[in-house]
Specification:
globular, single chain, TIM Barrel, 8-stranded parallel beta barrel, alpha/beta, 33% helix, disordered N terminus, 3-stranded mixed β-sheet, 358 residues
Length: 358
C-alpha cells in the first residue's frame, strides 16, 4: 500500500534457491513495493498496481504463524496478488488507554515475523495494518473511539499509549514493506500534532512505506497526508440506491467515485491505495458495503458483480495505486462468516481480473 523517494527501498528476506531466482524475486518485489512510494504525477505512473489480500485471524493472530500460512499465501499469489496484509490487535479502554503486550524486537513472535519472511520467499510484499479492538469498550466501532475535546487527559493517555504500541509493532515487524499508522480512528483526526508525533515515531522504527486507513466518509478530514507516503482509504463506498443493481449501475457508481478521488489525489500530490475493500454475500452489498449482514450463497452473484466492478475500476484509474481485499483466513478455514473472499466464485473473479494484468 510517494515521497520521500530518497529513502532506501524497504529490505526483504531473500528466499532459498539459486542466485538467479533470488535476483528475479528481488526485482519483482521491488517493483511491487514502488506502488506505495511512487511520487511521480498520478497520471504518469507506470508502476504495477498493488493487488493485495488481507489475511485475517480466527484467533488472537497466532494462526499467522501456523504451518498453514505459506500455503495460504501461495494460493493468494496464484490469483495474481503481489501483496498480503495482516492486522495485529491492541485493545482500547474507555479511559483512552491502549492495552497491548509489549514486544521484544530482538526476540519477535513468529506470528509476526514468519508472514514477512514467507511472503518475501513467495515474491510477495506485506503490509502491517494495526487494528484497535473495541469489543468490551464503550465504543461501537473504531470510528467511534474518541472523547470530548475538553477531556484532555483521555486524549493524552490515548495518543501516548497508542504511539508506544504502533512504534513497538513497527520495530518488531521491521522488514515489512508497508505500515498503516492508524485504521478508522477518524474522531481523532483533528489532533494533527499528535498524529504527526505518531508518524515520526513509526518512521524512526521502520523503513516501510506509510499510510493511514481513513474511512471513506472521512479521508478529506486528514490533515497529515503530507507526512505519509500514500493516501489510504477504507473503500466501502456505496455504489447504488437499491439492491441487486446491474453491471452498468455499478460501473457508473465507480466512475463517479473515481472522478472525485482523482481530483483529491492531485490536490494531495499523492496516489491513493484502498487499505480495505470488500463485500459480504448480501443483496444490499452495493448499498451498504460496510455491513456485516450476509444473505448467504444466493447473494453471491451480487457480491461477485460488486467485486468485479471494483477491481476493474481500480485497474483503470491511474490515481489509485491499488487495493487490499477484506478478508481471507489461513487454511483450513479460509472463508469467514462475512466478507467471504476465498469462495470459488469470488476467487474466479479476482483471478480473472488480476492474472491477466500480472
Amino acid at each position: 500500500m510517494v515521497p520521500p523517494l530518497t529513502r532506501p527501498a524497504p529490505g526483504w528476506a531473500r528466499p532459498a534457491g539459486s542466485v538467479r531466482r533470488r535476483v528475479l524475486l528481488a526485482v519483482l518485489v521491488a517493483a511491487a513495493a514502488a506502488g506505495l512510494r511512487d511520487n511521480r504525477p498520478v497520471q504518469g505512473s507506470t508502476e504495477p498496481k498493488v493487488r493485495g489480500v488481507i489475511i485475517s485471524t480466527h484467533t488472537d493472530g497466532s494462526d499467522w504463524g501456523s504451518p498453514a500460512m505459506p500455503g495460504t499465501m501461495e494460493e493468494i499469489r496464484d490469483l495474481g496478488a503481489n501483496w498480503i496484509s495482516i492486522h495485529p490487535y491492541a485493545w482500547i479502554r474507555g479511559d483512552g488507554e491502549v492495552r497491548f503486550q509489549p514486544l521484544d524486537p530482538g526476540n519477535p513472535p513468529r506470528y509476526l515475523t514468519d508472514p514477512i519472511r514467507e511472503a518475501h520467499a513467495l515474491g510477495l510484499k506485506i503490509l502491517i495494518k494495526p487494528h484497535l479492538g473495541y469489543w468490551g469498550s464503550p465504543f461501537s466501532w473504531r470510528g467511534a473511539i474518541g472523547w470530548p475535546e475538553s477531556d484532555t487527559a483521555s486524549w493524552q493517555r490515548f495518543f501516548t499509549s497508542y504511539r508506544e504500541w504502533v512504534s513497538n509493532l513497527a520495530e518488531t515487524c521491521r522488514g515489512a514493506d508497508g505500515f498503516v499508522v492508524g485504521t478508522e480512528l477518524d474522531r481523532s483526526l483533528s489532533h494533527d500534532a499528535a498524529w504527526r508525533e505518531v508518524i515520526a515515531a513509526v518512521r524512526a522504527r521502520t523503513g516501510a512505506a506509510l499510510t493511514y486507513g481513513a474511512n471513506w466518509t472521512d479521508y478529506r478530514d486528514v490533515t497529515f497526508w503530507d507526512a505519509l507516503d500514500v493516501v489510504g482509504i477504507q473503500a466501502y463506498f456505496p455504489l447504488a440506491d437499491g439492491p441487486d443493481p446491474d453491471r452498468k449501475t455499478l460501473e457508473a457508481g465507480w466512475r463517479s467515485i473515481m472522478a472525485g478521488l482523482r481530483v483529491y489525489a492531485k490536490e494531495q500530490n499523492r496516489r491513493i491505495v484502498f487499505t480495505e475493500l470488500g463485500y459480504s454475500q448480501s443483496h444490499l452489498a452495493p448499498v451498504e458495503p460496510w455491513s456485516y449482514h450476509s444473505d448467504g450463497a444466493e447473494a453471491e452473484p451480487t457480491q461477485a458483480r460488486c467485486m468485479d466492478a471494483a477491481l476493474r475500476a481500480v485497474e483503470r484509474e491511474p490515481s489509485v495505486a491499488g487495493v487490499f481485499l477484506w478478508k481471507w483466513f489461513p487454511n483450513p478455514r479460509p472463508v469467514g462468516r462475512n466478507f467471504q473472499l476465498a469462495t470459488p466464485g469470488i476467487k474466479d473473479v479476482i483471478a480473472d481480473c488480476w492474472r491477466s494484468r500480472s
